[in-house]
Design a protein that fits this description.
It is a single chain. The protein is α/β, with parallel strands linked by helices and 389 residues long. The protein is built from 14 helices and 15 strands. The strands form two sheets. Strands 1, 2, 3, 4, 5, 6, 7, 8 and 9 form a nine-stranded mixed beta sheet that branches. A six-stranded mixed beta sheet has the order 14-13-10-11-12-15, with helices on both faces. A hairpin with a 2-residue loop joins strand 2 and strand 3. The structure holds adenosine-5'-triphosphate and magnesium ion (MG).
Length: 389
């Protein structure tokens, strides 16, 4: 039996030229995502993307991957048959038998986009509904809230039959809103922040500050693993690894201890800003949430913002930890995030961090450092690893 995935996209942006661009972007995206599962024909028609397996070893996995593509609101797996109502009845019976055996009530909903088909949608529903009702003794039709709705669509190329519509990932296709640089630590928050912005149509690059030997090789591997998990939704991510040890030691040795975290974060943002410009990223993304820790007070965020020309997006700013955790579990990063490796943020943390830093005092402390040279050296030694290719 021939099977096809139908991916439906949202209507919001579908106007004029935009629509074509949107469709083309999605077709390209879906092709890239399907690549590892075999050969597929992918094309768009009437606000639907058709994904037809030509040669596929794992249909389940391929279908799952379709549910993780931003810009898609609903996903259906269908059997396709010839445009003959008897063939459609038999196909529905065979293709949906497992699902139909699990429920007691059902209805058939039909659509006919090929108007040359000689039956109305109501007649199609009645015919297929009647057939299924005869073949499965335990079933009874129910128009109002049935347990299962059989969807039938008569299209140009055939009749498409499916037993369930799954929600898609929603949002906007990756890249349709440009590119963002995610500050990725090993924690719970930053992968969620990146996921949320990717959902709004950003392509992601990531930057990770690495303080070897204060933080271990395993900590770095954990970050790469997190990025890799994210790529199920985001597509490939280049992860830029910035050696951060020299900067942290310089701050420790020269600056007032209680301002350590805020000064360190200002360095991170300076470097992220430069890299964002270099990599054509229009924003920096962090996993900060207001008041979560000392460095995430309004005052601390303000002092940190001042170091970047690139806008900083903080999608978690108004969220509670448990809300963030729910998303983290859903996108599959949680179990990796809670592995117990140090992040450079937890190295040299002061006992009494200043929660309302004053810019004047921060600048005074920083004047003891050669900020530009430290930033430049870190950037010179930065390298990247692409995950999710
Ligand atoms: P997370 O759970 O994402 O680690 P957190 O609650 O632990 O966040 P902080 O450690 O203060 O908070 O970090 C705040 C944000 O700064 C992180 O969400 C991340 O965006 C960024 N960040 C922290 N450490 C690093 C790092 N080593 N490399 C890159 N970005 C970092
Ligand atoms: Mg952290």
């Amino acid at each position: 039996m021939r099977e096809v995935f139908l991916l439906k996209f949202g209507e919001l942006v579908l106007k004029g030229l935009n629509r074509l661009k949107f469709e083309n972007r999605l077709v390209k995206l879906v092709k890239t995502r399907m690549y590892k599962y075999g050969t597929f024909e992918v094309y768009a028609k009437q606000s639907v993307l058709f994904v037809e397996p030509v040669e596929c070893t794992d249909l389940e996995a391929a279908f799952d991957a379709c549910r993780k593509i931003f810009g898609i609101v609903a996903v259906q797996r269908c059997a396709v048959c010839d445009k003959d109502i008897m063939v459609a009845c038999k196909t529905a019976e065979e293709y949906l038998s497992d699902m139909l055996n699990e429920v007691k009530t059902f209805k058939v909903e039909s659509r006919r986009s090929d108007k040359s088909f000689p039956m109305t949608s109501i007649q199609i529903s009645q015919e297929i509904g009647g057939w299924l009702n005869d073949k499965f003794d335990h079933l009874s039709p129910k128009m109002d809230e049935p347990e299962m709705t059989v969807k039938v669509e008569v299209r140009e190329k055939g009749i498409y039959i499916s037993g369930k519509v799954y929600p898609g990932a929603g949002g906007l296709p990756n890249g349709s809103n440009g590119r963002g640089l995610l500050m990725l630590s090993g924690g719970i928050d930053s992968p969620v922040a990146g996921h949320m912005m990717a959902k709004r149509g950003l392509d992601l690059a990531a930057i990770h500050f690495f303080s070897y030997p204060y933080t271990s090789e395993e900590a770095k591997q954990k970050v790469l693993k997190l990025a890799e998990i994210m790529t199920d939704y985001t597509g490939k991510i280049p992860v830029f690894i910035v050696p951060f040890t020299e900067i942290q030691e310089a701050i420790r040795d020269n600056c007032f201890e209680d301002l350590f975290t805020v000064i360190m974060r200002r360095f991170m943002v300076r470097i992220a800003d430069k890299l964002a410009q270099q990599q054509l990223c229009g924003c920096i993304i962090t996993g900060e949430s207001l008041g979560q820790v000392a460095s995430q007070t309004m005052e601390a965020l303000g002092v940190t913002n001042a170091c970047s020309e690139t806008p900083i997006f903080r999608p978690l700013i108004g969220m509670d930890k448990n809300e963030i955790t729910i998303i983290s579990r859903k996108i599959g990063t949680f179990e990796t995030s809670i592995l117990p490796y140090e992040d450079c943020c937890t190295v040299f943390t002061p006992k009494h961090p200043v929660t309302k830093p004053k810019m004047k005092k921060v600048l005074e402390e920083e004047s003891r450092l050669d900020v530009d040279a430290l930033v430049q050296r870190a950037l010179d030694e930065t390298y990247y690893i692409v995950v999710g290719e």
